[in-house]
Amino acid sequence: MTSRLVLALIVVVVAIVIARLLERRKPAPPTRDAYPVPAQLDRQDFPRPEAPWLFVLFSSRTCDSCGPMVSRVCSLESETVATVQVEAKTDKALHDRYRIEGVPMVVLADGDGVVRAGFVGSVDSWELEAALTDAQAKDA
User: Fold this and answer.
1) Number of independent structural domains in the chain
2) CA–centroid distance for 52 within its chain
3) Residue range(s) defining the domain that contains residue 83
4) Of all residues in the chain, what percent carry a pLDDT higher than 90?
5) pTM
6) Local structure of 53: helix, strand or coil
């Protein structure tokens, strides 16, 4: 009987110690985007800086999902929308300037270069069109 009481007391003490240790743990640090999207672009770095909207596709020749993204982004080219592909090896300076770490990355910027939407990874055409429509509606 005494041994059971001692065993129960030990279990309770261990549980209290573990609970106290867990209470003292620091919370996890805030999450950070794995591949951050730039917040601002210098429109002079890209073709047609006078266009009200700009889609930039940051890509790489070694990226399998970048190929299909080229046609999706370029299909949005219009009088009011400029589009450009910025390939990692060919345009290394721009990748470095905007600290592009993950591709494909699509950035939608307004006439002032403020990034209104950004996508990391492969996205469908309708998602790009929706981002443009949403940004234009907010701008109106």
Assistant:
1) 1
2) 23
3) 43-139
4) 69
5) 0.75
6) strand
